[in-house]
């Protein structure tokens, strides 16, 4: 296979980006006759927009996504001649809240998280800056600790699941979204305002990795950190995990979707490019291999929650069968 062949072009979700980069790097080592795939970010929507722009050498081959493709995106694909799309689910991601080991039990809901960390909320019928200083003022069942939360910074893919599954859900549940709209904002502006977290020091963005978050909690025993499940499981001697909506986070509750702060992860393959772009099928097969998405894989070490055994077999069987949407 010629090394000067066009490499596989991949773009999309920032959440999937590090997983795809790990696969691409390993693929380049295992298949030296193929160029190492080029993986770029830009977000799920932007990746699918590129993917659906057409077929041929000037278009990307794979779109990474942290949500399923929408009906309107599929229509754009079809309108532009991208008629055979293979949807590939490859696992899940989930985030957990944890405090220093030895502390009291924590039971959180999206409403609690929003009331603790949201920038604005409704109090006595008025839209005000977040007045809550302690977790107990948010929910009487929580400790009387000053609110200090170490959350994924905007550079992290997990920030999106944090915002949509917790902050946005709490904003809607508390009536804050309706109040923002009633204040004169259009739907888009109100939705964006919903996702804003307070800037008074109670919520601290962590742009580094989870070891930085752990160090913050080690320094502040009343701090609350957001972690990937795999990191928490590797540090259970140092951390105590919170439930969300009374569900304990685990590989099982995340992979089945019972745990609220979880979601499936996808990549989409342009079937018309298989057999045309060198290594495309091999890349997808390699991505779906046990050595990449199994329980002992580098993706699981990084934070991927592997799907159950039978489900992983289904992913592989569907792709091998050329199943399209």
Give a description of the structure.
There is one protein chain. With 325 residues, the protein is an alpha/beta fold. The protein has 15 helices and 13 strands. The longest helix is centred in the middle third of the chain and has 16 residues.
Outline of this structure?
With 325 residues, this protein is an alpha/beta fold.
Structural class: alpha/beta
Sheet bearing the most strands, described? 9 strands, mixed
Order of helices and strands: EHEHEHEEHEEHEHHHEHEHEEHEHHHH
Strand coverage percent: 15-25%
Helix segment count?
15
Helix fraction by DSSP (H/I, runs of at least 4): 25-40%
Count of DSSP strands = 13
